[in-house]
């Protein structure tokens, strides 16, 4: 018992130190990630720790390889939008004794890694396709997809599926479900990004942006719902695969 608390705490502090020193997460975000990582490891087991670790650091590695900004420094809101649902799934597992919730936790984390790799690996792609205008586009904005991005999200989901299969349960159905729903979640993220997510146009540089202020000027809304920003889209797409996971298990 004391040993378990000690190992979970040590592992969590290691992750927090690494995330913060690499500027992967800001200070408040690191604290929230720490609390959730500790709880998920304690209640869900060590493979959960490995999954959370991979969610952060595979993206970091690929942003170095592709020389893109990756997800940049993530803040506390992003942390909650990415980790709250997996954590709820772990708590459901702990209190209900049902293994299916551990699969749901893995699905939610797979979606998380799939989504960040879709943008990090997809960024250098030459051909992007906009899901709203159905036109080719050159930039990697929300609502655009690319072949490289889809392969990136498949790769991300499979990493989490492999951890589940190797360290939690040799269950082929769960393996495919984590791989499939993780990838689907990243795609749903792009669909919601294309249709519901708010977008503005900067009057100076004429670019479509996600900020209300750009080039020190007030931007003008061109599409989407004001309350649905990128974090909300991330949360909603993860919620959809979280529910689909429960239905399919
Ligand atoms: Zn601008």
Structure, explained:
The structure is a single chain. With 249 residues, the protein is mainly α. The chain has one domain. The protein is built from 8 helices and 8 strands, in the order H-H-H-H-H-E-E-E-H-H-E-E-E-E-E-H. A 3-stranded antiparallel beta sheet has the order 2-1-3. A hairpin with a 2-residue loop joins strand 6 and strand 7. Helix 3 packs parallel to helix 5, helix 3 packs antiparallel against helix 6 and helix 5 runs antiparallel to helix 6. 43% of the residues are buried. The model has no long low-confidence stretch (mean pLDDT 94). The site of zinc ion has 6 residues, from loops.
Tell me the number of strands: 8
Order of helices and strands: HHHHHEEEHHEEEEEH
β-strand amount: 5-15%
SS content category: mainly alpha
Give me some keywords for this one.
249 residues, mainly alpha, three-stranded antiparallel beta sheet, globular, binds zinc ion
Task: Give a concise summary.
This protein is mainly alpha-helical and 249 residues long.
Secondary-structure map:
Layout: H1 2-21, H2 27-44, H3 46-65, H4 76-96, H5 100-122, E1 128-130, E2 136-137, E3 144-145, H6 147-167, H7 172-195, E4 199-201, E5 208-209, E6 213-214, E7 217-218, E8 220-223, H8 230-248
Helix pairs in contact: 1-2, 1-3, 2-3, 2-4, 3-5, 3-6, 4-5, 4-8, 5-6, 5-7, 5-8, 6-7, 7-8
The protein binds zinc ion.
The site of zinc ion has 6 residues, from loops.
């Amino acid at each position: 018992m004391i040993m378990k608390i000690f190992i979970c705490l040590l592992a969590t502090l290691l992750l927090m130190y690494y995330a913060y020193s690499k500027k992967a997460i800001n200070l408040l975000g690191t604290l929230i990630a720490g609390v959730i990582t500790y709880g998920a490891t304690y209640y869900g087991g060590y493979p959960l720790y490995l999954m959370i670790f991979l969610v952060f650091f595979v993206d970091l590695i690929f942003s170095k390889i592709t020389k893109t900004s990756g997800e940049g420094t993530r803040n506390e809101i992003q942390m909650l939008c990415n980790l709250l649902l997996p954590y709820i799934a772990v708590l459901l597992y702990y209190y209900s004794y049902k293994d299916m919730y551990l699969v749901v936790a893995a699905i939610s984390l797979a979606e998380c890694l799939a989504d960040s790799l879709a943008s990090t690996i997809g960024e250098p792609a030459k051909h992007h396709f906009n899901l709203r205008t159905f036109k080719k586009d050159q930039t990697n904005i929300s609502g655009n997809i690319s072949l490289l991005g889809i392969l990136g999200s498949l790769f991300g989901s499979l990493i989490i599926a492999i951890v589940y299969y190797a360290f939690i349960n040799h269950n082929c159905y769960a393996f495919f479900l984590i791989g499939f729903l993780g990838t689907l979640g990243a795609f749903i993220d792009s669909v919601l990004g294309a249709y519901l997510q708010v977008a503005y146009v900067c009057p100076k540089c004429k670019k479509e942006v996600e900020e209300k202020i750009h080039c020190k000027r007030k931007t003008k809304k061109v599409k989407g719902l004001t309350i649905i920003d990128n974090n909300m889209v991330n949360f909603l797409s993860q919620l959809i695969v979280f529910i689909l996971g429960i239905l399919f298990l």
